[in-house]
Amino acid sequence: MRARRVLIAEALLLGGVALTVLAREFPGLVREVRIWRMVGVRPVISRHAG
User: Fold this and answer.
1) How far apart are the C-alpha atoms of 43 and 50, rounded to whole Å?
2) Is the dihedral of CA 6, 7, 11, 14 positive or negative?
């Protein structure tokens, strides 16, 4: 039972760290996406298929 609590605590801690990193990086990611849209970058679809 104790091991399960430790695993849950670790999972919560890792989730919190991941959420913090994502929250810090989000404004930069939004800015990058806006730049890509202005430049006209689109998702690359494989041209060699078919």
Assistant:
1) 18
2) positive
Type of residue numbered 26: F
Distance in angstroms (rounded) separating the CA atoms of residues 50 and 44: 15
Q: Measure the CA–CA gap between 40 and 17, rounded to whole angstroms.
A: 34
Tens of each residue's pLDDT in the chain, 50 residues: 899 999 999 999 999 999 999 999 999 989 998 988 888 876 666 566 55
Give this prediction's pTM. Answer: 0.53
Length of the chain, in residues = 50
**CA-CA-CA-CA dihedral for 10, 15, 17, 23, to nearest 10:** -170
